[in-house]
Design goal:
Radius of gyration: 26 Å
Number of strands: 6
Largest sheet: 4 strands, antiparallel
Shape: elongated
Helix content: 55-70%
Number of domains: 2
Order of helices and strands: HHHHHEEHHEHEEHE
Structural class: alpha+beta
Length: 244
């Protein structure tokens, strides 16, 4: 097994093909899960990024092989210097711009796209590792990334639902109802830290709304209970818990 891996780490047509296939497979596995959740970057995007990153490393190895082989006389004549890390660093810089373009601010002061952009970065690094022939690293990283994106997501959601801190987006009749909503929240033993009014007047089918940041009481920190208490108020049209 060790001899096979050693041969596959050598730069050849077979090893290059295997590395590109591994990069495509690892990027596809991660991208498939994100595509199922209808994220901005899907199946093909992750595959292309991983293949592109692997190709950058393979190109670096190809240049080194040519500069130390068939082009050695030219290199010696002109005094050319070779930096193997230049292409890889350019790929990392490029993925930074791509990831920044995915991150956006959506409604209710929430930011969307952070997980997608970091997933693209991790996939790009997997592609670099695949192009370098670090097969064990690619497999280990792939398993961990899939676990984090698919298995840990519901666990993280369940954990946040058990925290005492909670953020609510509430739609109501008018701005004067904010005090009534605040009293109802404090009646449940919760403490209101901040209130951010988003809309003060009704526009089309959208009522005035505000974001309430609060901490639930120790004796009663049920998120669903707080949502029900606020929703039962006659002045409230809708209430939603914001979970980032």
């Amino acid at each position: 097994m060790g001899a096979v891996l050693q041969r596959l780490r050598q730069f050849s047509f077979l090893s290059a093909l295997l590395r590109l296939l591994l990069a495509m497979l690892s990027g596809g596995v991660v991208g498939f899960g994100r595509s199922q959740k209808a994220r901005a970057a899907g199946f093909r995007t992750y595959m292309l990024i991983s293949i592109g990153a692997a190709m950058a490393v393979l190109l670096t190895q190809y240049q080194y092989a040519m500069l130390t082989g068939p082009w050695a006389d030219v290199v010696e004549a002109v005094g050319m210097k070779f930096d193997a890390s230049r292409l890889a660093s350019s790929v990392i810089t490029g993925i930074g711009f791509l990831g920044a373009g995915i991150i956006m601010k959506v409604a209710h002061q929430q930011v969307n796209g952070l997980t997608t952009s970091t997933g693209l970065f991790a996939t790009m690094v997997m592609g670099l590792a695949a192009g370098a022939g670090f097969y064990e690293g690619v497999i280990m990283a792939l398993i961990l990334i899939v676990l984090l994106l698919n298995v840990m997501s519901p666990l993280e959601f369940a954990f946040k639902r058990r925290l005492r801190n909670i953020t609510l987006n509430v739609e109501f009749n008018g701005v004067d109802d904010i005090a009534r909503i605040t009293r109802a929240i404090e009646k449940e033993g919760a403490r209101v830290y901040d209130i951010d009014v988003e809309r003060t007047e009704r526009k089309d089918d959208r009522y005035p709304s505000a974001i309430f940041i609060l901490q639930l009481a120790r004796r009663n920190h049920s998120h669903s209970g707080m949502l029900s208490s606020v929703a039962e108020l006659p002045c409230v049209h809708s209430v939603q818990e914001l979970i980032s």
